[in-house]
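hey so i finaly got around to running the thing on Adenylate kinase 8-like from Elysia marginata. pasting the sequence first so u can double check i didnt mess up the copy paste, my clipboard has been acting weird all day
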Amino acid sequence: MSLLYNSQPSSVVLEAPDTVLVERAAGKRIDTKTGDVYHTTFDWPGNPEVQERLEEPEGQSEEAMVQRLVLYHRHLHGILRCYSQVVKTVNADQPKADVFSQGKGWLSLIVDLL
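ok and heres what it spat out for the 3d tokens, dont ask me to read them lol
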């Protein structure tokens, strides 16, 4: 799956295998007090009080994510065709700092060209 972030006049497509996206969605937890996002595998809070407040967001089950992926893949080609001249693909199956850096680098490059 790829997620499209549009910032005219350029776009960044974040690509990751469907299995990775399903795992990320299924492990997502929200702190009901602060709204902070955690993950059961990748970013579990060390504070027991925070752990007690965590809830699974509605619609983040494995089954719900698979349904969204089917719909997404059905429309992906048409979406990407619209942005073919201004799109940068970034592998999102890597540390978030690397993903952010690559996406920001592309967008900065485009802004500099304007």
